């Protein structure tokens, strides 16, 4: 079941100290700005809830995990301020994932592109299916994955990010992502994936919540400057999207 809502959907289910946050959008689970803002606020809210120990982040349906930011909104950007605000959407989500105080399990059932790769990278532990190929295609439209790069590089290293970014037109399969450290395990079916997500989340939820909070802090040590860094990166992308190169590339994509 997938949503048909133009601005997407976001639901949180809480059970046994586990909060499952599920997002959806009819365009391959992509993110309009409004949905990114809702996800940011929900992560902060769940992070402040003392009755929750662990978060599962997932998307609707059995196909794409996330197609990145809304293409329609990207095409509509007309000035620097709009550009910076648009790219700040994923910056805000990544910073909320980083600082929310809860360990986040990523459940990746299918292909993920651009900002979706950033979301997966900002999770603390990621489980995926064989269909969960990844791609950073930003170069093909004249921009770059600047906002999500710190999160991606933190997970797969500079060489992995370089390979993914420079080979912008090709998919890397789920086993490549596992080998690089983005995914912990890869499963043949969604059923197997969900079983493992359930087992892991229940185990984590049974541990000392204070230990989990301290581990979250330890894992993200050294990222304290990301509020400023990701805002700067959003400004870079906001400028690039207004370039003649990108405007022409986006026109070709539209056609």
From TrEMBL:
Transmembrane domains' residue ranges: none
Coiled coil, from the record: none
Molecular function GO labels: isomerase activity
Annotated signal peptide: none
Pfam families, per database record: ECH_1 (PF00378)
UniProt cross-references to PROSITE patterns, sorted A to Z: ENOYL_COA_HYDRATASE
Keyword vocabulary terms for this entry: Isomerase
Entry keyword Isomerase: yes
Keyword Isomerase: yes
InterPro entries, A to Z: ClpP/crotonase-like_dom_sf (IPR029045), Enoyl-CoA_hyd/isom_CS (IPR018376), Enoyl-CoA_hydra/iso (IPR001753), Enoyl-CoA_Hydratase/Isomerase (IPR051683)
PANTHER family the UniProt entry points to: ENOYL-COA HYDRATASE (PTHR42964), POLYKETIDE BIOSYNTHESIS ENOYL-COA HYDRATASE PKSH-RELATED (PTHR42964:SF1)
Record family assignment: Belongs to the enoyl-CoA hydratase/isomerase family.
Protein name in the entry: Enoyl-CoA hydratase/isomerase family protein
């Amino acid at each position: 079941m997938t949503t048909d809502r133009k601005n997407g959907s976001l639901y949180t289910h809480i059970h046994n100290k586990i909060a499952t946050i599920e997002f959806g959008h009819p365009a391959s689970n992509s993110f309009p700005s409004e949905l990114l803002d809702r996800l940011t606020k929900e992560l902060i809210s769940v992070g402040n809830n003392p009755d929750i120990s662990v978060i599962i982040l997932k998307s609707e349906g059995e196909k794409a995990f996330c197609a990145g930011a809304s293409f329609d909104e990207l095409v509509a950007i007309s000035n620097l301020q709009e550009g910076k605000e648009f790219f700040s959407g994923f910056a805000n989500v990544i910073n909320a994932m980083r600082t929310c105080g809860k360990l986040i399990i990523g459940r990746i059932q299918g292909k993920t592109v651009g900002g979706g790769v950033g979301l997966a990278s900002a999770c603390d532990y990621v489980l995926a299916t064989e269909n969960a190929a990844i791609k950073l295609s930003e170069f093909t439209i004249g921009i770059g994955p600047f906002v999500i790069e710190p999160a991606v590089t933190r997970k797969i290293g500079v060489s992995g990010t370089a390979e993914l970014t420079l080979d912008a037109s090709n998919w890397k399969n789920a086993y490549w992502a596992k080998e690089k450290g983005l995914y912990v395990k890869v499963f043949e079916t969604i059923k197997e994936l969900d079983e493992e997500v359930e087992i892991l989340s229940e185990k984590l939820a049974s541990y000392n919540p204070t230990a989990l909070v301290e581990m979250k802090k330890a894992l993200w040590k050294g990222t304290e400057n990301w509020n400023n860094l990701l805002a700067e990166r959003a400004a870079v992308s906001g400028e690039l999207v207004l370039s003649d190169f990108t405007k022409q590339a986006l026109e070709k994509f539209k056609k």
